[in-house]
């Protein structure tokens, strides 16, 4: 299958700037791979998306958004355990119901839907969606779609997982955590992922290559990718300061972790 305190955000110039903290979600300490504090439900948008969300919205004040893109010939159900995991941490996840997500347009349509629902009196989402805190992630072709979606100024950060060739790295507006699998023979890291990381000099970018991972590792519950991605989104979209040290500063918990066969931070990421 080809498939809070004050936090730092990044302006379109790629420079770190201070952003006021949003109403915080409950802390999970450092248990990024464990279930979050929210019971999860899912629903169809009626506009081409499966929405995974906390059953009772409002526990984070307004909830940040994650846009999801599937791999080729895959559907959200293939990744449901991972997407439900993010929802348990307080995110509203809009997963495009398409097996061809490389354009990123179906992913962005999920943000359009949630933006409209956030303003619609009587909607379960009314006043509960933080449309100023949006991330995008996807696997394989959906990873390429993530890069395309990240060219939209409304998307604050991206996590392409074993991404396809779609999208232009130079058009990304915010920080990127790009992921490869050590034993991925479909999207070979050295040929297809590391060069895209190297092209991201204009933004903070981190490359993580999961030890032992194949192209199918991100399916299901996301395997070893699940915890680090959750920490990334909790920092950049929730201002969760407990997640900062996983990636930034002199300690950088991931930098020497044995879960990675390769882990790199570019100059802008190191500056954070």
TrEMBL record:
Report if keyword Magnesium is assigned: no
Signal as UniProt keyword: yes
Source organism phylogeny: Bacteria, Bacillati, Actinomycetota, Actinomycetes, Pseudonocardiales
Signal peptide span per the entry?
Answer: 1-18
What keywords sit in the KW lines? Signal
Q: What is this protein called?
A: Chlorophyllase enzyme
Q: Which residues form the PET hydrolase/cutinase-like domain?
A: 35-250
Q: Which InterPro entries match?
A: AB_hydrolase_fold (IPR029058), PET_hydrolase/cutinase-like (IPR041127)
